[in-house]
Structure formats: C-alpha cells, structure tokens
Specification:
With 334 residues, this protein is α+β, with helices and mostly antiparallel strands. It folds into two domains: 266 residues, Hsp33 domain, CATH 3.55.30; 38 residues, no CATH class. It has nine helices and 15 strands. A hairpin with a 3-residue loop joins β5 and β6. The longest helix is centred in the N-terminal third of the chain and has 18 residues. The protein is globular, with a radius of gyration of 23 Å. It starts with a strand and ends in an 11-residue tail after the last strand. The mean pLDDT is 89.
C-alpha cells in the first residue's frame, strides 16, 4: 500500500495498512493497475449525533444514514468551497429526505415520514416509494447551480446512484452503502449508529475503454437492435471485488479503512490518499433565523406569534430559537 497526497505525484514509501480505525472520515484511494479510483466513508459519532437528535424509528434512521453516506461519497469530491445537497421527494412512508454537505467537512440531514405507514421488514425502496432524487451542487453566490435528477421507482439509493452516474456522468460507477446500530456493553439499552460506504469508478486514460451501452431505446420500433458494449476486463474485475464487500465490513468499528481496502485490492496494489474528516455541524444561527423571519410577509410573521413570542425550531439539528414579536419584526396591531 502506498500513501500520498492526491495533489502530488510524490510517493511515500510502501507501508503496511494502518490497523487504527478512523471514524467520521472519507478515505480516497486508487488501484492504478485496474484504472480504478474511489472513496471509502466510515461514520460513527457524527452519524449518531445527527440521527439521535430526532430519535428516528430504526428503518427511517437507516435510510437517512444511507443518504448521508452517499452524500459524503459524492460531496467530498468537490474541488471548491460550496455545497452538495441530496434530496428526495417521494410518495412512500419516508416522503422527504435532505442531506446538506458544506465543503470541506460539515454535514446535516433531516427526514420526514409517516409513522402510520411504517411496517416491519420494509426495504429502502419500499420506504421511499416513487418520486425523484435530486443532487444539487451549489458553488455559491453569483455562480450557477448544477442539478441532476433521477427517478425513484421502488428501488433504493444504491440503485439510484448507479442510474445517476449512468445517465448524467456516464462514468462506470458502483456504490455500496451500509448502516447499522452498535450495541455497547455497559450501557444498558444504549445503541449507537454506524455507517460505511464505498464508491468505485473506472477511469481509464483511454476514454473508449470506459464506453457504456446506449440507454434503452424506449419506444423504438419492434426489431430495433439494442446497442451493447463489452465491459472492459479491468472494470469487470473491479465490480467483482466491490461486490464481495459485506455490510459488516463497512461498519465494523474494529476494522480500519486501510485494512479493508488492502483486503479487497492487495493483489493489484492499492494507494491511499490523505483522509478527509467529517463533522455533524448545522449552519443555523440566531442571526440567520432572524433574517429568515424578516423575509416573511408581515401577516405570516404575525400568525407565528404564540404566547407573546415567536419560536422557531431548526428541522436539521432541533435547536430552538425564541424571539419577542419586536425581534421578529411583528408590528403592533398586525
């Protein structure tokens, strides 16, 4: 295993993979013999902080955890100060998910669900139902936004990510997501959320090697031959290797990310880059909420007054902000 900065070609000496697990980080890596690049996410305290603030039912917490992992795998690829926002709107029991990643390391997330529609054994696809997944890259003020949309039709987030890369990026990509609850001895009834994920992409120097078959022709006349392309042997091997990763390996608190990558790719050689730390941190503040209130119509602000105060709760972090009517910009007699 070789370690180096992703922004330099200076190689460090070959070394054994670190046995020290590192939570709340993304580890970029490369398997140059197969023209593969990827990222490995491991989440512990940061994920637990986000999910326990709302005390989500286990299936909802697991689904939102998957969305958070997917967001870290994609958002940490940003090369500029900005935001990557993953959002779903669907007709399933979990009708709305949003994960907001602010580069380089800040995460927040929220889920809206109908508890009466939750049933034991529902898959991620059944929880989501039908609708769409939107991935937005916000480069800041005076810069255009980029948004990719993927239809959700009863499948989970892994499948949606594959569809996104097939249709929008046209980069051969595979994603693995895993979320679980860790029960620790000595803390009766106490559990902690953990998650992990891996993104693997085939990026050969010769672009023709990465060609993929055309999208399904849809309502083409009967007899139309569907375009096919034989997959490159290196990508076939890469998909086979990531397909062997088990959920327990992705979330195991005692298995380091480097050892997991070495376990998968040691025969071909794997190079890791500097890990990127992550933290659960909301961007809300009293000043920001006050500014938001003042953007509302006077009547709407007046309607928010209860017991002579205006109370706003952040949906992301559950922080509560209280204002007097005057502070909220409510005029007397409104």
């Amino acid at each position: 295993m070789v370690s180096q900065s992703p922004d330099t070609k200076t190689e460090a000496p070959v070394r054994a993979p670190s046995a020290v697990p590192v939570d709340d980080s993304v580890l970029p890596f490369e398997v140059s013999a197969l023209d593969l690049r990827g990222r490995l996410t491991r989440l512990g305290p940061a994920l637990d902080d986000i999910l326990t603030k709302h005390d989500y039912p286990a299936p909802v917490g697991k689904l939102l955890g998957e969305a958070i992992v997917l967001t870290t795998l994609l958002g940490t690829s940003l090369k500029f100060e900005g935001r990557f926002i993953l959002q779903t709107r669907t007709d399933g029991p979990v009708s709305f998910l949003v994960v907001d990643f602010k580069s380089p390391d800040r995460l927040r997330a929220y889920a809206r669900f109908d508890a009466s529609r939750l049933k034991p054994g529902q898959t991620s696809g059944e929880l989501l139902g039908k609708g769409h997944l939107a991935m937005t890259i916000d480069q800041g003020a005076d810069m255009s936004r980029y948004q990719g949309l993927v239809a959700l039709d009863g499948d989970g987030l892994e499948e949606a990510a594959h569809e996104y890369f097939l249709r929008s990026e046209q980069i051969p990509t595979r994603v693995r997501l895993a979320v679980g609850e860790e029960w620790r001895g000595g803390e009766a009834g106490k559990h902690h959320w953990r998650a992990g994920g891996m993104l693997l992409q085939f990026l050969p120097k010769a672009p023709e090697r990465a060609r993929q078959a055309d999208l399904h022709p849809g309502d083409a006349p009967e007899g139309t031959v569907h375009h096919t392309v034989a997959e490159d042997d290196a990508w076939v091997e890469g998909q086979s290797l990531i397909g062997t990763v088990e959920d327990v390996e992705l979330i195991d608190p005692d298995l380091s990310g480097e050892r997991l990558l070495y376990r998968l790719f040691h025969e071909r050689g794997v190079r890791v880059f500097a890990s990127q730390p992550l933290q659960a941190k909301c961007s809300c503040s009293r000043d920001a909420v006050a500014s938001m209130l003042k953007s509302f119509e006077p009547k709407d602000r007046a309607d928010m007054v209860k017991d002579n105060k205006v109370v706003v709760t952040c949906e992301f972090c559950s922080s509560v902000y209280e204002f007097t009517p005057e502070e909220a910009g409510v005029e007397e007699g409104t």
